[in-house]
Write a structure and sequence with these properties.
Oligomer: single chain
Order of helices and strands: HEEEHEHEEHEEHEEEEHEE
Number of strands: 14
Shape: rod-shaped
Strand content: 35-45%
Number of helices: 6
Structural class: alpha+beta
Radius of gyration: 32 Å
Length: about 325
């Protein structure tokens, strides 16, 4: 087989709290550091998603109703025409999902600073009631999806479908030369074929396998008939009596598919998971090399895409190559 290079599901590592829950300055300092790291991660992701916007960390904005300066974890500011658009992002480094109270408190902050849009980010997600309340308040709920090494590192995968094309070959020979002609055993697999200058071109089986493996033959499903094995060249081969006889050598190629469903690992990605829509927001991701042997052995074979409960995001197509030294079933017509 050839090696292949080509909403997904993020698979975060299990959440673990560093250290023990002790009172004192050490615990507060550790929690504060972790919160700042989350804020900086969110700032980095948002800057990648909006490269032309101003994305700032730890900003103070005046409260219209409280009359005090309000701390903003991440502020996204962009000018649209004559208008300044402010998007406030609040980061929650919690060990449990944000509840409805957290959403309502954030809504109060948005109202106080007069933000046009609000986003809550929590790596461990949100309760169902929090999602319902946020939808009513038009607040987006995200969790980070980032493969860089840090506390919230994820190992995401993408639902993928691999379509392997498999070929079966049949062979044909015809001649109009005024010479006797006898097809000997191994005619298509072993008999050498020559051009008009006497140069050896290989065997019928070897040549059709070479062309299939090189991608010269169409991998369209169905049967392709009367393909000249050696192209447009005039060819000769042994007529069974020790004489080189001009012949027409053709092949029939029957192509069918083998489908495999599996999860494709994502090596690098930076973005957000929309916790209400279930989709991923990113502007780029990188997948690695695929081993066709691993796909055929570890992925799930299926007959049709209709069997899939989760629709594939990426479709990969490969060709099952033939081994020239393998056996061949000869068909004559």
């Amino acid at each position: 087989m050839r090696s292949l290079e080509a909403p997904w599901t993020a698979c975060p590592k299990k959440w673990r709290l560093a250290g023990s829950l002790l009172k004192g300055d050490m615990q507060v300092s550790g929690m504060a550091k972790s919160s700042v790291e989350l804020e900086l991660l969110v700032q980095k992701i948002q800057q990648q998603l909006a490269p032309h916007a101003e994305v700032r960390h730890n900003v103070k904005m005046p409260g219209r109703r409280t009359g005090t300066k309000r701390q903003i974890d991440v502020l996204v500011r962009e000018q649209v025409g004559q208008y300044d658009i402010n998007i406030v992002i609040d980061c929650k480094d919690y060990n449990r999902p944000v509840d409805v109270k957290g959403v309502e408190e954030f809504a109060g902050l948005l109202d106080d600073v007069g933000a046009q849009k609000g986003v809550l980010v929590c790596p461990v997600g949100f309760t169902d009631s929090a999602k319902t309340r946020a939808a009513g308040l038009q607040i987006d709920l995200y969790s980070p999806v980032d493969t860089d090494p840090h506390k919230w590192q994820v190992s995401p995968t993408i639902p993928a479908l691999c379509d392997f094309r498999v070929a079966a070959f049949g062979f044909g020979v015809s001649t109009s030369a005024p010479l006797p002609f006898m097809i000997m055993p191994g005619f298509f697999s072993d008999n050498q074929v020559f051009d008009e200058q006497g140069n050896a071109l290989g065997t019928c089986y070897g040549k059709i396998v070479e062309r299939w493996n090189a991608g010269e033959l169409a991998d369209t499903l169905g049967v392709q008939e009367n393909i000249p094995i050696f192209g447009d060249r005039a060819v000769r081969t042994d007529n069974g009596y020790g004489q080189l006889c001009p012949v027409e050598l053709t092949a029939h190629v029957a192509v069918h598919k083998q489908l495999f469903s599996g999860q494709l690992p994502v090596l690098k990605i930076s973005g957000f998971k929309d916790e209400m829509a279930g989709s991923i927001i990113t502007n780029a991701f990188t997948i690695g090399l695929l081993d066709p042997e691993e796909i055929s052995q570890k992925w799930t074979p299926i007959e049709s895409e209709e069997e899939l409960e989760v629709k594939s995001v990426i479709r990969l197509q490969g060709v099952v190559c033939w081994d020239e030294n393998a056996g061949v079933e000869i068909k004559l017509w």
